[in-house]
Hints:
The longest helix is centred in the first third of the chain and has 9 residues, at 4-12. Helix 4 (195-200) links the parallel strand 12 and strand 13. The protein has one domain (4-207): Glutaconate Coenzyme A-transferase. The chain has four helices and 13 strands. The relative contact order is 0.16. With 217 residues, the protein is α/β, with parallel strands linked by helices.
Amino acid sequence: MLDKNGIAKRIAKEVKDGMFVNLGIGIPTLVANYIPEHLSVELQSENGILGMGPFPYEGEEDADLINAGKQTVTLLPGSSIFDSAMSFGMIRAQKVDLTILGAMEVSEQGDIANWKIPGKMVKGMGGAMDLVASAKNIIVAMQHVNKAGESKLLPKCDLPLTGIKCVKKIVTELAVIDITSRGFELRERAPGVSVEQIKNATAGKLIVEGEIPEMAI
């Protein structure tokens, strides 16, 4: 199985030259560390940064430079900083090519729930609502099961929805899965993970066709 960095490293392979990419809070922020240097990619943070780089080395942090998750980040040459109104103007105008988000649940139709757990206090829904409504392509980085061992890939989300039929791909510690009109479609399995393990961890409809290759990390 993959750890969080392994998930981020696999998702980085989905990033193409020339893309504008938004990284959500959690595992998605790690993707910045694995984008190949030869690619020209602009990372956008919803709090008002365009041109984020990888996380800083210990001792080189600048407390004034943070991403939407309040983590210290670096800036690449040519980067810019602006207010939230401009940031969300970019997002709503569909200037972002790829959005990478975490999630608590994803349905086989591509619905996503990632902002609220009933009974727990939250500060607000944040920018995820705008991102899922406006992004051209959404990849979810998440654990396949929750702490209780229950699947997070469901026939229908139980938690309040963030967006409807918007997720295109999911990468977990077990697998790479596409969202299709037929349900979850298994594309790749993590090193050392069997198709049977993935089936057992997936509550929604999982389509398995042919030989499923192992991820190349």
